[in-house]
Amino acid sequence: ITFASLEQGLGVQGVATISADPADGPNAVKLSAGVIGSVTGKVEMTAPNEVTIQMGSLSGLASLLNGALPVQTQTIQIPNLPMGLVVRSVSVTSQGIVATASAQHTTLTQ
What we know:
Elements: H1 3-10, E1 17-20, E2 28-32, E3 38-47, E4 50-59, E5 74-77, E6 86-92, E7 97-102
Antiparallel strand pairs: 1-2, 2-3, 3-4, 4-5, 6-7
C-alpha cells in the first residue's frame, strides 16, 4: 500500500502527508499536516486479514486540541488472496506498507 494510496483512502490527500517514521520504531508512520501538526502511528497485523494503524499522540498546534480532535485507529481489511496465500507480516518502508504473504501445499499449474 503506497503512502499516496493510504492518504487517499484516509481522505487526507492534499491536506496531510503520510511517511515512514523510523525514529519512532520500525513499523511507525507519521501523518504530517504542516503547521497544524502531526500524529504518529504504529502499523501492525491484528488479524490474518486485517492491518491496523494505531494512532498515537498529536504534536504541534493539533496537540492544543487534544481530546477535541479525534485521532482514530485505522483498520485496513485484506481481501482473500488466491492460491492459498496468507499474509504473514507487514512492515513499513520509505514507499509505504508492505505485506508479506506465503502459501503452503499449493499446486501451481500453467
